[in-house]
Amino acid sequence: MATKHEQIIQHILSLSVGHKISVRQIAKELGVSDGTAYRAIKEAENQGIVSTIERVGTIRIERKNRENFERLSFAEVINIIDGQVLGGKTGLHKTLNKFVIGAMQLDAMMRYTEANSLLIIGNRVEAHELALNEGAAVLITGGFDTEDHIKRLADEKELPIISTSYDTFTVAAMINRAIYDQLIKKEIVFVGDIFTPYEVSWFLQAGDTVGEWYELNEKSGHTRFPVIDDSNRVLGMVTSKDVVAKEASLLIDKVMSKNPQVVQAKTSLASVAHMMVWEGIEVVPVVDQASRLQGVISRQDVLKALQQIQRQPQVGETIDDIVSRSLIDSEDDKPVYHADVTPQMTNQLGTLSNGVFTSLITEASSRLLMHYKKGDLVVENLTVYFLKPMQIDSKLVIKPKLLEAGRMYAKIEVEVYNERKIAGKGLIMAQLIDR
After folding, report:
1. Which of 176, 218, 271, 381 is most buried, by CB atoms within 10 Å?
2. Class of CATH domain 66-187
3. Mean pLDDT, rounded, of the chain
4. In sequence order, what are the residues at sequence separation of 6 or more whose Cβ sits closer than 8 angstroms to the Cβ of residue 58?
5. CA 58, CA 52: separation in Å to the nearest integer?
6. Multiple choice CATH, 4-60, 3.40.50.2300, 3.30.565.10, 1.10.10.10, 2.30.42.10
7. Domain 192-307 class?
8. Mind listing the pLDDT tens digit for each residue in 397-434?
């Protein structure tokens, strides 16, 4: 039977997009406490099915597919630009396809303004009306208001008209930045994107026997299974090592490993890869917040996804992407790399930032291991030394050196030179993931 928390989430999912939600209303309708309703609404917000807006409240919004991740809803725009809704609140759940800056003549502006777009403009009431009639929402900059008949039109068309104190170009930059951040997030792979769901995964009940482990082993070809109770909560993991030489009638909960490592759908691929390498785990159960089994993720799933990521083109660039792109291999066979200190890599003083220096050392170490065909690394410990500032436009020479390497670990020393003088050093202890 579903818990109260799950019942509230299912109730919210059943509501129409644009429906307004409140803690008291949910508590009254479903007969739960205000605290339970509040926690469930917060979880719904984390899942991207509701959005909370100051001075408006919480509304049901459409959950995004990964392919539409770069689209923002008008509700999200309000939170980004700290806006105030003047009219058209029922349309806040809608997404914008593009935004148009109204810094041109009215006729020219209307040629670019279309349905599901957002017109960013100042105190030009005629433009507000024309945009709404074209099916576009309106964002008024400079803190201006608009006339009452425009607000009524926005309500009628179910298109938001929003006011913000920021100027037009600041607002455009803020929205652009948010879309760009969404693109970067789209590329990050989570456990929820690649795991095998509960419906098609293999598992055992606590009351099953060792004999039933062998039956499941023969059916599936797998040797590791989560063990769950009657409420689907994960109690343990059972492997071939646990059942070897055991009586077929012995209960599984007598031989399983209790309190196993688990992950959630929102766990990043990097985190689960690190766990699997460090703990030597082949299969990890995927659970929800109540520890109920959602599925499993295997080492093969993780490696396949890591290899696929490396083949994908990057759409949004993080600092690590900039560092990776700026690192140039030496022309000779030695693993030596060159990099220029660009403005994006510097701090407010114009010298190489701590974070970028760390990224340079990590990237050089990763390439060194690839040079020796050792595989990918997961950093366990990193020590850095800044010996002198590296200012903007400096040309750096980065020399990684493999000190020790085993089947599962590596120790690497990295020296960074500027104008032929050593400017910084790093020492990395890393776990290895075979390719």
Report:
1. 271
2. alpha beta
3. 83
4. 20, 21, 22, 41, 45, 50, 51, 52
5. 4
6. 1.10.10.10
7. alpha beta
8. 999 999 988 888 889 999 999 988 999 999 999 888 76
